[in-house]
Amino acid sequence: MVVRQYAQELEYLERLTPHSWRIKKGFQPNMNVEGIFYVNQTLEKLMFDELRNACRPGMVGGFLPGVKQIANVAALPGIVGKSVGLPDVHSGYGFAIGNMAAFDIDNPDSIVSPGGVGFDINCGVRLLRTNLMLEDVLPVKEQLAQSLFDHIPVGVGSKGIIPMNAKDLEEALEMGMDWSLREGYIWAEDKEHCEEYGRMLNADPSKVSLRAKKRGLPQLGTLGAGNHYAEIQVVEEIFDKWAASKMGIEEQGQICVMIHSGSRGFGHQVATDALVQMEKAMKRDNIETNDRQLACARISSQEGQDYLKSMAAAANFAWVNRSSMTFLSRQAFAKKFGMAPDDLDMHVIYDVSHNIAKVEEHIVDGKPKTLLVHRKGSTRAFPPHHPLIPVDYQLTGQPVLIGGTMGTCSYVLTGTEQGMLETFGSTCHGAGRALSRAKSRRNLDYTEVLRKMEYMGISIRVASPKLVMEEAPESYKNVTDVVNTCHAAGISKKAIKLRPIAVIKG
Amino acid sequence: MNEMFSQEELVLPQCKYEYLDHTADVQLHSWGDSLKEAFEQCGIAMFAYMTEIETVEIKESAEIEAIGHDIESLLFHFLDELLFLFSCEPYLICSKVTITEFMCEGEEFKIKCKCYGEEFTLGKHPQGTEVKAITYSAMQIVNEPDKNRFELFVIIDI
């Protein structure tokens, strides 16, 4: 890491617009392209505080601030355009969380990095709508929350209840949501409203270690812990009436269900295995990076290809996982209201991935290019008319689901043409942590947090009491700030705001 | 059928670990009178983050083996093996780990370890935080026999 005074560091940062900053070359060594990050005034302060702290004399150990990490990513071989920091950016491993970067596939030096995807491969958010209104749910809210909690296995050490053996898992890894459909867990139209139609075709389960499969098998159909959740939400505000109606959201007070989960132990192990493999590949191919955490391999190398195929299998695992929980949520609602999920109109509005690498076509310097786009803590946000978005959303742009944290609002945005040009069709993914978990536990009081939830009218079911403090809204950046920044910067557009009324967590 | 254990095996070690701040995750800090002890403590620290470790009885045991190409990777793989023990069959949560073979010098880096605990059971063991993965991020290994200082710092992804 280059050691400079804070004031000297600032010389490398330049305000571009009221909502974006440029990171000039030289901020970190060997930058191939510039960096950019999107913030508003509040978020800007958090970013600069983090940098100032890292510049304090005598700082040892600790971790790199997000801006430095964005700049380190800009130094990776084969990167094109800019290394982009989204408004919810915070320090991660190698890549910042809330970081996107695209690599030119035709450049033989270009790399793929598991750090640019994250441990929780294809962690993402799915939104289901219903035709219920707030007044239908309020009288049975507690029971409904309990029922969801009873249906969906949550928290550390919980096991899936969807029957699965090793052979089923192999098929699920290869087929993604086509497996869920074949087994009767989902509706055919669910696939339509899912990135990649819920199946990455290049998935190759034979590239996945037995270890990952063993970890994955008992966990399929489980929510997990940490920031994952299932929420019953109510439409609080509609910003774009037309886009909302295309999504089947007609008015305030309508009830939705949001599921935030990923590929569980399966994806974690795939990522761990790949990192070990890539360390070797880096030595062999003499790939130099600024940070040891940025383990990577050339896209064309054996390790690079193997990772992409096993990552795709993990992505399929995550879709099957979210689909299984979709099934369980539909069951919980159907039982409570004595109506079929069909009659409750419980369709999938959309399903997004916010930890993934994908091959996409983009325009770079006026020319079409095939790129490997890494989105870590960043959501794809394609504009209207893009060929990869479903026919229902061709005119509105892709729905982008931004999950809040326990007790805060969530948003649905739509993709824009400007986002396509500036950020390779990417936007933020959520709130982003502001406080460390340990600090949250020290500073916040369990009963206080719960009382606040109750006051806000939120039923809560959490498996781990510790998590209540760690995941309290105070521990996160304000998701409204994050979303407003994306909207103001034009990289995506606000459509709907949702407020939670029941939270189920690990 | 429960395994039989000697009195000595059932004695729990002293707690020589703590949890340090990290924005998104948690840093394990462990120490001991030898590097071996610091390793054992680090393993327990990870298990203690997943549940309240006092609730874990010693009913069964498992043996693991970890190999690395340097001391950092040995620690990484050691913890990864322990996490694996918990994540699938036998779903073992441990309150004690005893390293029986510890090679941390020269060409070979290798650990053999006996892990004592029981199957993680909802209802009996309170759910703590799920550990996704072990990371090399800011990993530090203090190995200073002359000062009797043996400490480990590992960030786990949660």
Main β-sheet of chain B, in a few words?
A: 5 strands, antiparallel
Query: What percent of residues of chain A adopt helix (DSSP H or I)?
Result: 25-40%
Low-pLDDT runs of chain A = none
Strand content of chain B: 35-45%
Q: Count of DSSP E strands of chain A?
A: 19
Mean pLDDT of chain B: 93
The percent of residues in helical segments of chain B reads 10-25%
Largest interface: A-B, 44 and 38 residues
Topology order of chain B in helix (H) and strand (E) letters: HEEHEHEEEEE
Q: Give the mean pLDDT of chain A.
A: 94
Q: What gap, in angstroms, lies between the N and C termini of chain A?
A: 37 Å
Q: What is the terminal-to-terminal distance of chain B?
A: 34 Å
CATH structural architecture of chain B: 3-Layer(bab) Sandwich
CATH top level class name of chain B: Alpha Beta
Rough shape of chain B?
globular
Q: Tell me, what's the shape of chain A?
A: globular
CATH superfamily of chain B: Archease domain
Total strand segments of chain B = 8
The largest sheet of chain A, given as strand count, sense and whether it forms a barrel, is: 8 strands, mixed
Give the domain tally of chain B. Answer: 1
Keywords (chain B): Calcium, Metal-binding, tRNA processing
Family (chain B): Belongs to the archease family.
Protein name (chain B): Archease domain-containing protein
InterPro entries (chain B): Archease, Archease_dom, Archease_dom_sf
